[in-house]
Amino acid sequence: MQSHSIYKVPQGKLLKISLEYDKKKNVITNIRITGDFFAYPEEAIELLEKKLQNTVLDRVVLLDTISSLIAKNHIQFIGVNAEGLTQGIMMCRL
Amino acid sequence: MTEQWRLLQTGFTNAFSNMAIDKAILVGNSQGVVPPTVRFYGWAPPAISIGYFQSLIEEVDIQACEKFGVDYVRRITGGGAVFHEKELTYSIVVPEAHPAIPKNILKSYGRICGAVMKGLHLLGIESEYAPINDIVTGGRKISGNAQTRKLGIVLQHGTVLMDVDVDTMFSLLKVPNEKIKDKLISDAKQRVTSIHHCLGKEVSFKEVAGAMKRGFEEGFHVELVEGKLSEEELGLAKQFEKESFSKKEWNYRR
């Protein structure tokens, strides 16, 4: 399945998610995170996209996975956060 | 003795060269071969720059850009798409460890925007910092800013709008929903302003640059000394322009 979402993060920026997922297994097969937010270091977004492959499309799992990746890789987001990313991804689930 | 930083006035160049020069200064500063630097520049031809995380094809009407002779380029900084035409663009490159730069990224935006606001004040425009990355006057945006931190160096670049053409801007940018395009245009006209609009007269690039020079000097308690790009920076800029900013691989990467 392919799906897209556009989500304005509260007090933040516009987040756009393009998602491919396996509906049967309910896992992400490919994800692209775009938008007018900021992340330090910038290249961390590619790492995040890669690490989110094969993650279960579940709000709790996603929030936990994204929060851990942000902490572990010392990523600083401005204009978006783990909750916003989770929301944007979950909005893609048809 | 007042600390001296370098001032570069590189004139009007194309989008790829502009972004390559900013990156070259960052690398030069990280190698300790050039001092902290403030640069003022313009764009010829006019250009759209998009933020590092944006999708070029989702944000920019490529065909319209090509029809109107407008360049498009991906920045190394985050943030949104910007139409660069009648504006002064600044960049500042300074080590993260410099005492003038707050460790906190948002605070450092505020600090650097403070210098731009001092420059606007000298032109007769009172403004304020509107987090995350805007400067507003009378509630309307007059400057957008974007910062990256790499190799221990802060690079922030931003616009100072001298005039604004929202209709042209929207003819070059894609909107998520064509049905509400007219509403988006009228909203943007309410949200954005310019030096021309604020003062009711045109102010030259040179005059804006003069005010911004003083704004950065007062904002950072430094003296800006006019200089040139080093040979090494020029070489790096050419390399970055050729190998990334002018390449499809870079501009279409997201």
Write the layout of secondary structure elements.
The complex is a heterodimer of chains A (94) and B (254).
Chain A: E1 2-8, E2 14-22, E3 27-35, E4 38-40, H1 44-51, H2 59-72, E5 76-78, H3 82-90
Antiparallel strand pairs in A: 1-2, 2-3, 4-5
Helix pairs in contact in A: 2-3
Chain B: E1 3-13, H1 15-30, E2 37-43, E3 47-50, H2 56-59, H3 62-68, E4 71-74, E5 82-84, E6 87-95, H4 105-122, E7 128-130, E8 134-137, E9 140-150, E10 153-161, H5 166-172, H6 181-191, H7 195-199, H8 205-220, E11 222-226, H9 231-245, H10 248-251
Parallel strand pairs in B: 1-2, 1-11, 3-4
Antiparallel strand pairs in B: 2-6, 3-5, 6-10, 7-8, 8-9, 9-10
Helix pairs in contact in B: 1-9, 4-8
Description:
- The complex is a heterodimer of chains A (94) and B (254).
- Chain A has 94 residues and is of the alpha+beta class.
- Chain A has a single domain, classed as CO dehydrogenase flavoprotein, C-terminal domain (Enolase-like, domain 1, 2-Layer Sandwich), CATH 3.30.390.
- In chain A, 33% of the residues lie in helices and 33% in strands.
- Chain A is built from three helices and five strands, in the order ββββααβα.
- In chain A, strand 1 and strand 2 form a beta hairpin.
- The longest helix of chain A has 14 residues.
- Chain A starts with a strand and ends with a helix.
- By secondary structure, chain B is α/β, with parallel strands linked by helices.
- Chain B has a single domain, classed as BirA Bifunctional Protein, domain 2 (2-Layer Sandwich).
- Chain B contains ten helices and eleven strands.
- An eight-stranded mixed β-sheet of chain B has the order 7-8-9-10-6-2-1-11, with helices on both faces. A three-stranded mixed β-sheet of chain B has the order 4-3-5, with helices on both faces.
- In chain B, strand 1, helix 1 and strand 2 form a beta-alpha-beta unit.
- In chain B, helix 4 packs across helix 8.
- The model of chain B has no long low-confidence stretch (mean pLDDT 96).
- At the A-B interface, strand 3 and strand 4 of A face strand 9 of B.
